[in-house]
């Protein structure tokens, strides 16, 4: 289902950003593989309705991967058993890269990089419980220093079908220079596909593939406010201002449909990003921040992006 021979481009899971409406826009722009926002396995295991809603996918959103965060094998197994009853999910991904303190303190996300044995146990749990095609892992290179190379083979042996590597440590946050040499070293050790992630854009995508030997790319923040990056990377060129406006309006409509009265609030951060670099953006942001009525925000969008 995922064609690794053709270097697929994934949309990274970003909490509060890569929800169903945004994923629909990204897919329209050429994203090959979409992933849910990070889902708490504990919340899913205990039947949180809010969490279950986060699992929803759009018609035609395929391949679609669900990402779980957990440090508890029992609750992870329960959440996977629930996902087994859900159609349209191609795979389950274990988050081993989230640097957020709340997640880290629970021993999940990037904290698992400090406990390779538990990390591999969690992968094995997904693999033996899941009825989905793929079991995958998204990781950083380490916590404070690069250590993933030391146990990458163990992850493969635990049952991962492919891995995604954010080319920074947890300590490196989102601003340190990505370590593509480390990704290349890990790729050379593994038989499974390796997807490269970390500040990838139109300028460096080709060189990242060439320098790491990666089997695909994952783009996160580079797609927020610019979902057409997928079509640009596939050689289709930059969309016109009118085409961008059409996508933004469609995104707004999808958000309002999905979230109802909360759609306006959920779109504000996206509208902030869409307006970056545009003349009059600060005034536009101030206006939409103060407006809660969808019809009025719609008019503001139409007016601003016609400039």
TrEMBL record:
Catalytic activity: a 5,6-dihydrouridine in tRNA + NAD(+) = a uridine in tRNA + NADH + H(+); a 5,6-dihydrouridine in tRNA + NADP(+) = a uridine in tRNA + NADPH + H(+)
Keyword Oxidoreductase among record annotations: yes
Principal EC category: oxidoreductase
EC numbers on record: 1.3.1.-
Cofactor: FMN
Record-linked Gene3D superfamilies: Aldolase class I, Putative flavin oxidoreducatase, domain 2
Family designation: Belongs to the dus family.
Role this protein plays: Catalyzes the synthesis of 5,6-dihydrouridine (D), a modified base found in the D-loop of most tRNAs, via the reduction of the C5-C6 double bond in target uridines.
Protein's name according to its UniProt entry: tRNA-dihydrouridine synthase
């Amino acid at each position: 289902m995922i064609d690794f021979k053709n270097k697929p481009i994934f949309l990274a899971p970003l909490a509060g950003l890569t929800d169903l409406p945004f994923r629909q826009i990204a897919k329209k722009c050429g994203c090959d593989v979409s992933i849910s926002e990070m889902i708490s396995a504990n919340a899913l295991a205990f039947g949180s309705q809010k969490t279950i809603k986060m699992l929803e996918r759009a018609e035609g959103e395929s391949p679609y991967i669900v990402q779980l965060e957990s440090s508890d094998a029992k609750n992870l197994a329960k959440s996977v058993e629930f996902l087994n009853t859900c159609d349209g999910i191609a795979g389950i991904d274990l988050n081993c890269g989230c640097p957020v303190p709340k997640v880290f303190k629970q021993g999940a996300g990037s904290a698992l990089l400090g406990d390779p044995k538990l990390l591999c146990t969690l992968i094995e749990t997904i693999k033996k419980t899941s009825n989905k095609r793929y079991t995958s892992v998204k990781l950083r290179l380490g916590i404070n220093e690069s250590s993933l190379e030391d146990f990458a083979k163990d992850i493969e042996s635990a049952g991962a079908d492919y891995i995604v590597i954010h080319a920074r440590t947890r300590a490196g946050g989102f601003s340190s220079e990505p370590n593509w040499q480390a990704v290349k070293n890990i790729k050379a050790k593994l038989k499974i596909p390796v997807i490269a992630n970390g500040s990838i854009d139109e300028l460096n995508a080709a060189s990242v593939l060439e320098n790491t030997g990666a089997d695909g790319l994952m783009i996160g923040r580079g797609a927020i406010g610019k979902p057409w990056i997928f079509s640009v990377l596939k050689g289709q060129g930059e969309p016109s201002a009118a085409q961008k406006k059409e996508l933004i309006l469609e995104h707004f409509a999808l958000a309002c449909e999905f979230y109802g009265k909360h759609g306006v609030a959920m779109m504000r951060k996206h509208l902030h990003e869409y307006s970056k670099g545009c003349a009059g953006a600060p005034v536009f942001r101030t206006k939409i921040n103060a407006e809660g009525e969808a019809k009025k925000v719609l008019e503001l969008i139409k007016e601003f992006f016609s400039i």
